[in-house]
Amino acid sequence: MLKFLADNPLLVLFIVAGIGYPLGRVRIAGVRLGVAAVLFVGLAFGALDPAIKIPEIIYVLGLIIFVYSIGLSSGSVFFEGMRQRGLSASVLVVIGLAFAALLAATGHYWLGFKQTITAGMFTGATTNTPALAAVVEMVKSITPVDLLEQFEAEPVVAYSLTYPMGVLGMILAISIMQRLWRVQAETQSTGVTKLVSITVRVTLTHPARVDQLMGTHNWDLVFARWRRGSQPVELVTGETQIQAGDLINLVGTAEVLEHVVPTLGVLDKENLDFDLSQFDKRRVFLSNPRAAGQRLMELQLSRRFAVLVTRIRRGDVEFVPHGNTRMALGDQLRLVGSPSQLAQAALFLGDSYRSVSEVDLMTLGVGITLGILIGSIPIPFPGGVTFRLGVAGGPLLSALLLGALKRTGPLIWDMPYGANLTLRQIGLVIFLAGIGTRAGYTFVNTLIYGDGVRILLWGTLITVMMTLVVLWLGTKWFKLPFGFLAGLLAGMQTQPAVLGFVNEQYGDELPTLGYATVYPLAMVVKIVLAQILVLLK
Prior knowledge:
Blueprint: H1 2-7, H2 9-23, E1 27-28, E2 31-32, H3 37-46, H4 56-111, H5 115-125, H6 129-142, H7 148-180, E3 195-202, E4 208-209, H8 210-217, E5 222-227, E6 234-235, E7 241-242, E8 247-253, H9 254-264, E9 265-267, E10 280-285, H10 296-299, H11 301-305, E11 308-314, E12 317-319, E13 332-337, H12 339-349, H13 361-375, E14 379-380, E15 386-387, H14 390-405, E16 407-408, E17 411-412, H15 417-446, H16 452-476, H17 482-492, H18 496-505, H19 510-534
Antiparallel strand pairs: 1-2, 3-8, 3-9, 4-7, 5-6, 5-8, 10-13, 11-12, 11-13, 14-15, 16-17
Helix pairs in contact: 2-3, 2-15, 3-15, 4-5, 4-14, 4-15, 4-16, 4-17, 4-19, 5-6, 5-7, 5-16, 5-19, 6-7, 6-19, 7-15, 7-16, 7-18, 13-14, 14-19, 16-17, 17-18, 17-19
């Protein structure tokens, strides 16, 4: 049976995925492992026999698809996030990794671990293969030829022992702190909540134009319809002038509307949103490639079709549209207008569910190719060591840039929301199954010999303590949201498996933003610290 599995790696892949994915949805002590359960199942299968493993090219493909999809969805908010939280996140990452290196050095001086073991333990506890590669290269450059074979293997063994718990230890630490601090993961958000519609009876002492009111107060809402006396309901434009006695329909979050109402007037029981005597409302999918990537004001929907966009739904998030809002394939636009004008606007926007479920393979291929090329560029470091972003960092960087651009001429880099999620999930499952099966046998086998147990326990301590320190500092000192911090930890660990787990807990993009914000910096810092540990006396 074991030989049959070893001879059929694709069968192993689908068995591991088929068992691990539903297993991750089972709640244990109130916590779900989510897609990260695939890693556990992979480790179990890999421990059966060293020949049972998924070929490297397959799980690397999964990794590339996963990080590229993550980067595309994060690109539009990544640079804004860097301005808002970039400095705090960067400082926190450096502190966390320096603390982990200090713990590793403590193991060297207190427990007597050799420098090569110490450095390998650090790279495994922080799950960073490029850092391990840098350690191995450094060991080669400073070790006598007759001792090279032994010393070269030591960091790899330590890495193999600590890597699995580098993933699982962080997941457990995040889960425990989430429960201790009673963080309701499902309610964490980026500040965007469900939109509501209300009608206000205006009590302004002087007439005012809508564009002037918006310019003065910078309200995050939409003025939708209005009516004066017994006149028919009309759509609001920037030139609309409202005065005392008018009824006006507003769309926004409950928190924003609560502050706006006293300025304009008082709530009215009549809701113009339900008045369909003059205007109808309709949800339309944006599937026209020519409209994707453009700002809402550039589409000129009100001028072309006399329709008004009152809200936009992207995935599970609904938000207030503004003129500068970048449109994405798969967006659902709530339009208000006459039935005939709504039909014309829908034709212009596309309104094809099938189209927004497809992937543009040309732009996907070009973007990933660019990412792989970026990842292969050697970056020199002191001591003759070169560093590469690799197949994880290169596609991530490429996707962040292209996701921020949205489009270049006729090329649309963005991907429909649903298609992005599907590719992301498939890529992550393949990656987790691959690394699980390949690490399982080594993980179990090396525990039996020498300092295996001590290395495993100290590596787990490094991972867990680093996680707790970052969570405590990030929450208490830097005042960062828990969801963002959890994603930051995944990025600091340069670990898609942790991000996959965190994304299962949260219904927004905060974890992904935290991951993308710190990933490149964490990669470089770990490579530098790992090489310093090799030089310990």
